[in-house]
What does this fold into?
Amino acid sequence: MTTGASMTGVPLSLYLAVSGAMFLLGLIGVMTRRNPLLLLLAVELMLNSANLALVGFSRYWNVVDGQIFALVVMVVAASEVVIGLGLVVAVFRQRLALNVDGMSELRG
Amino acid sequence: MIANLAWVVLALPLLGCIVLGLFPNEPSRALTRVIGVGSVAVAFGLVAVIFATLLGRDTEDRSETSVLWNWIDLGDLRVDLAILVDPLSVLMMLVITGVGALIVLYSTEYMEHDRDYRRFFAEMDFFVFAMLLLVLAANFVFLIVGWALVGLASYLLIGFYYDRPSAVAAAKKAFVVNVIGDVGLVLAAFLLVRELGTLDYAQVFAAAPGQIGLGSGPAELIALLLFVGCAAKSGQIPLHSWLPDAMEGPTPVSALIHAATMVTAGVYLIVRCNVLFALAPHASDVVAITGALTLFVAATIALVQEDIKRVLAWSTVSQIGYMIMAAGLGAYSGAMFHFLTHAFFKALLFLGAGIVIHALAGQQSLNRMGGLRTHLKFVYVAMAVGCLAIAGVPPFSGFFSKDDIIASAFAAGDLGVALGIVAVIAAGLTAFYMFRMLFRAFWGPEPEGGYDQHPHPSRWTMSAPVGLLAVLAAVGGLLQIPAGWSVLRDWLEPAITVADLEPSHTNELIASVLSVSVALLGIGVAYWMFAAGPARRLAYADRFVTVRGLLLDQWRFDQVYEAAVIQPGRDLGDAALHGFEPSGSQGLVNSATSLSASASRGLSRIENGLVRGYVFAVVLGTALVGIVIVLGR
Amino acid sequence: MGERIVFALAAAGALGSGVLVILLKNPFRAAVALIGTLVSVAVLFLLLAAPFVAAIQIIVYAGAIVVLFLFVIAYLGDRPVAMPVDPLGRGEPFAWIAVLGLAFPGFIALANSKLPGIRANPRDVGNLGDPREIGLAFINDFTAPFEATSLILLVAAIGAVMLAKRAVQGEGGR
It folds into this structure.
């Protein structure tokens, strides 16, 4: 990645703006969707936005740590999806509605 | 070596108690007997070994301290779990384990008709352990521990027949009064820490004369507080009222705890703390006067009791009054001498009375006795020996020890002479009431309607202890003979560091003549009134009805306490219960619970179980925090 | 200038697909829209000198995770779920308000940031995101996190197996 001339590179602030916007989109998804599958997809969106910020800062400080962290986040995301989808399947097989509101046994 | 043996002595009864208490099922009675009697008897054997070893040593070399471990270390204040083996504690141990073993052996037969056989022996062993801890402790902390444990054991044993309301009430009374004494002891210990910074006997007694002035405020206060403990434990006026009620316990318990050992703990404490009492002349006077007052009042009350055990109980209070008076006047070895002989003859009398009660199927009233000497010859002889001993007829033991005290009193200045005269009068009363009991139980006609059960003689397990104690009560006084030898005083000398009051020979002579003649007079009157003409008893009872009423009410101490302490306490409690409790403390609690309950009910509506709601809450909260941070900059 | 154009396109793709992800009611379509976001973010990673992370993003995220999603969606069937009345339906505007409330401080913070050069062209960084550099960093500095991630994966795998097993039993299977 060569960044020489004045108007060729992209400043960190723009990346952060995009990352924040993605995060808020994911948040809205989590709050408004009742289908657990869609909810998980929105969570993926939020995780990705975090990754974007991490990698952006890695570039900014010129250290590799952020990218390492992003990779770890991916691993966590993969695990989360596996478990989340496992739960969705399990709930489905118990012939329950695919509705996160139904899973409220812990209410006060 | 000696100290290690003493640790074993201390551990044996505890072990017996634990084994009996934790036995998985009800052990056979034979096993209970072996453990219950064995642990105390073996302990006595070991004490005898300790005693013999100490006898073989030089006088200065007879004291040994042993530390098991350091219990509290607070910088300046250090408290060890330590025992002190010295002539005084060995003497106490001999009596506790020796008389204790005899009484436990006696109990194997006496208690055979009771269902809680095992519990009885476990508690007896526990008492022996607590009492040994009390006398062996090498500092005030473990003295207080033993003191309190002894109170607990006494509570348990008085309330042994827990299905009898009077026994439970008596146990509670004993416990409460004893706790008053415990508080006094604890306060005394606090004062000692403040004044001397230590609770170790050796250090306290070494430092006290130098750091606490003779007759100074702290010295008097410490001595008085210690005496509060002694008075409660030893049944001295005004804390005596629990002791006669304690006769609700089984008779062996009365013999061991409420006659021979526990109630003399107060005497032991005063003798042990002789240094502290020597520093407090006024407190010592209080002690002596209290003792004299107690011995007189209790002797008068004993004149009219109809229950054989209550006669003995009041007699015990009175006899301990002798010891306390002697200790207060500074005749420490005299007090211990009387403690020793009293342990013999009072245990003998209680055990003898126990045989009578046992033979009559639990009947304790003198009115239901009479003429028993033909049926229970052995007990009659033994109890006659006991009565002669307590009345102070030579050459029985009580003569020597009581005269020692009276003679010492005559040697102790004006106050001593006054108290000595009281003691002589009380000696006459003692002779009278003891022989009244003897004559009414064993002489005279049989009661109307016959005995409750045909009296049967006891087996050897009950007779042997009584016989042995009768021998000891008869000859025990020969330990110390005026103008002859004074074995006990010499033995106790290392433990009594202040000057022991020794009567002069003139005083001995005056005291002997006085007390013997008064005693013989008392016996004579008793014979005239109860044995020669039993009808006279009722005639005189009618003539002195006012005095009799006062004495039967035990000088109305209980009524005064009822009116002055108990009823106001009840009123206060009632007022608090009805006036303050509903709106005050309970109201506070109720409103607190209802407040938190309604708050929780409100909050639980937020916990609706909807994940998205929770997310919303998190987001909203974060947003608010973010806004506050951003705008606050 | 070219980089800026690429960035603009990729950012627009990511946000646009993101909006689709949260707006589409059909899970299958939403998952496909997520692929668009993931690929766009991967392009942004490339611009950020992170080619290795970008590659992993494509392979693991778009390739494995989303495919897993699609499998599950296909398995469950593309059926319309009969939803009862949303108990929080009236609360949806509040969700937007809360999110905007979160966006507001974030925007202020970003706009007022005193981080040097945050709004300027980034520095030159050499071979920052090389696979070689990443590998060396993992081996030299981040061994423990690396092992921790392996543990997480193991736990997740076991958990998935357990869930699947219980689900089968719940169905009356083996």
